[in-house]
Amino acid sequence: MNAMKRPVPESDPLKISKSAARLSIVAAVAALVFLASLHIVSPEFDPARRVVSEYALGHYGWVLSLMFIAWAVSSWALVVAVRSQVMTTGGKIGLVFLVIAGLGEALAAVFDVRRPELHGLAGLLGIPTLPIAAVLISFSLGRMQVWSSAKRVLLWTASLTWVSLALMAAAMLSLSGRIVGVKVPIGWPNRFLVAMYCLWVISVGWQAIRLRGAWRDSNSAEPDLHNGVNNQEMEMHR
Questions:
Q1: What percent of the chain is modeled with pLDDT above 70?
Q2: What string of H, E and C letters represents the secondary structure of 94-155?
């Protein structure tokens, strides 16, 4: 019983990799920009009825590849950014799942829908693993005192990854006929999934940068405070 109640060691926000956190945000935003641009350059694909991967069949498949590469980089960069902050076993398992999610995203950039077996493997690695990683990492970070102010945002965005996955699954089941009488256009749930996955990465990366900056400022203010007190004491003795 005492072992179960053992407190989790506190993390040091100064160990957060600020450059990696910034890269995770930039890469996630880039992935969303590439996806949005595909709607403009490939209007022949109905976004309501065609999944994102089908853009590979058009003239701008290379833009889709860039989207998947940026997506993978965002996942891997986030692992580097917050790995020093994850102290629980569950959180460390979450980091492994996030690495696997990035692998699936990277494979999707190489193996498109014209190679269905390998593209299916990429989806199997990338789609279900990120929500698992999001929940495990968010809960682990939320247990840290220094991350308590970010806990609500992280858990909300992690929950949205599961909502998007559920909507995507429901759309696939409706199209396969397993949900009778309901036809859900699969395109929008698919795009919502990409957006929510990237949103979680952006949220964690942003909070990591914010907390590191706040912690650095508070620590740098302490020596100044002590110096001020010492100066006052010296003045009193003169």
A1: 84
A2: HHHHHHHHHHHHHHHHHCCCCCHHHHHHHHHHHCCHHHHHHHHHHHHHHCCHHHHHHHHHHH
